[in-house]
Recover the amino acids of this structure.
């Protein structure tokens, strides 16, 4: 008779198995079942599949690593296929005006202990900010009516904080759990952009004023740290880099080149020196984004020198520090002309380090940063209104009252995007289309504009089984 493998030898063999094979091995006998449930085996499988497990403090609750792996795999399967049995759809009404912006205020943690919750905040022309539980399909709280219509907000999920601004430039911070007002700051004119920055020294807020100043504020106190002049415009792009070292400020279609600030100099202003910044050698900038897979790779869409064609240019930024000063090194690493046959894109997003997604009318087009077209999707019947991109999927919203879900396949040299399914909104009789879309690890939410001038939220929360058997089969 062949010698039997002991638990230590089995554990070594099992460490080479894929999850499906490990589940099969658990069916052999009680010894194999016990070894196959070893914590380190499933922990390594989780770390290998989801890099976010390494970067964040996971909340397992009462779960084992095996249960976490099985639950998250099921959730991703359901979010990829989007069958009617995979999710619950809820419509949430409450605002008496249009919804102008929304943001998740719940952290994007994958937890499956029965306490998972997706919460978003919205601001509206009805002068209120409201919080919503997407799983329950209900309003959590609503602020008192404010002096003017609220037009923008940003969220700090780790702080459980939301910051809003109204059309007169009044900025307020609120506790996300109960809507308690914490602080306020009034800009001299209305705000053209807000950006939340989670800096290593602590989170702060950037606010571009239409009068032509960039304000840096602490959160949640909203104390002004610095104020620097920038281009005056009602349409400003304001973006922090993935490493939070840079703030990009650009006035749309301005003859002035966009400016990049070193955020450290905004947080620690000098009385006798202006903040460290540089102006990019381009003008008539229309759209921009950072490549999320790099620390400081900036993608800008602008007009060429003659002003006749659109160009997409990619830059790398680096700070060279000496004892007395910081020098900004800007290197152009790629540039290409958009095809003349393509309608001017109104949406630009990045994926990874080299892929650029453009929303052009009703079409979604993917390019590499060197101009190689990877794919084009014409799934919508009317213009795309918003574009959500994360490491797992892409979601588009449209005036055709649908959300289209795409999933990345990363096994090739360049990620391949696959069109998977669409999510429908309400009746065209009452609604004019989706205007916004966002997503977290277990839900998708869109803003549905109503023909009456109001707005509602429509959420799609994906189901997952919580009672995976982790014992002897």
């Amino acid at each position: 008779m062949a010698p039997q493998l002991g638990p230590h030898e089995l554990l070594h063999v099992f460490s080479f198995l894929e999850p499906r094979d490990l589940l099969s091995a658990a069916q052999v006998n009680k010894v194999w079942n016990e070894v196959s449930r070893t914590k380190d085996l499933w922990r390594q499988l989780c770390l290998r599949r989801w890099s976010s497990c390494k970067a964040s403090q996971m909340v397992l609750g009462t779960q084992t690593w095996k249960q976490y792996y099985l639950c998250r795999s099921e959730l991703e399967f359901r979010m990829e296929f989007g069958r009617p049995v995979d999710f619950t759809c809820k419509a949430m009404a409450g605002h008496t005006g249009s919804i102008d912006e929304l943001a998740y205020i719940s952290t994007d943690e994958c937890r499956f202990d029965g306490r998972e919750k997706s919460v978003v905040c919205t601001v509206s022309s009805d002068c209120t900010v409201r919080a919503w539980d997407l799983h329950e399909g209900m309003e959590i709280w609503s602020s008192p009516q404010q002096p003017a219509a609220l037009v923008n907000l940003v969220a700090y999920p780790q702080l459980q904080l939301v910051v809003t601004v109204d059309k007169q430039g009044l900025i307020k911070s609120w506790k996300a759990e109960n809507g308690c007002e914490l602080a306020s700051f009034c800009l001299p004119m209305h705000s053209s952009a807000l950006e939340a920055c989670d800096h290593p020294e602590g989170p702060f807020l950037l606010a571009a004023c239409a009068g032509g100043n960039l304000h840096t504020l602490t959160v949640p106190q909203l104390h002004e740290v610095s104020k620097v002049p920038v281009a005056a415009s009602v349409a400003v792009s304001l973006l922090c880099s993935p490493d939070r070292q840079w703030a990009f400020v650009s006035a749309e279609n301005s003859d002035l080149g966009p400016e990049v600030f070193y955020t450290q100099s905004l947080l620690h202003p000098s009385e006798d020196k202006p903040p460290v910044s540089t102006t990019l050698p381009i003008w008539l900038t229309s759209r921009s984004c950072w490549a999320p897979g790099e620390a400081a790779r900036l993608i800008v869409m602008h007009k060429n020198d003659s002003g006749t064609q659109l160009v997409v240019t990619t830059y790398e930024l680096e700070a060279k520090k000496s004892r007395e000063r910081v020098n900004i090194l800007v290197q152009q690493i790629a540039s290409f002309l958009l095809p003349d046959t393509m309608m001017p894109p109104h949406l630009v997003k990045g994926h990874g380090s080299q892929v650029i997604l453009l929303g052009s009318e009703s079409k979604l087009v993917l390019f590499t940063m060197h101009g190689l077209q990877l794919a084009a999707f014409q799934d919508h019947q009317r213009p795309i209104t918003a574009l959500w991109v994360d490491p797992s999927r892409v979601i588009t919203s449209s005036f055709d009252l649908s959300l289209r879900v795409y999933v990345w396949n990363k096994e090739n040299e360049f990620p391949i995007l696959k069109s998977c399914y669409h999510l429908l909104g309400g009746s065209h009789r009452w609604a004019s289309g989706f205007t916004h879309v966002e997503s977290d690890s277990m839900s998708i939410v869109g803003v549905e504009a109503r023909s009456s001038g109001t707005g509602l939220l429509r959420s799609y929360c994906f189901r997952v089984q919580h009672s995976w058997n982790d014992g002897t089969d």
The chain has seven helices and 32 strands. The helical segments are 7-14, 19-25, 30-36, 39-49, 52-55, 65-81, 263-267. The mean pLDDT is 90. Residues 65-81 form the longest helix (17 residues).
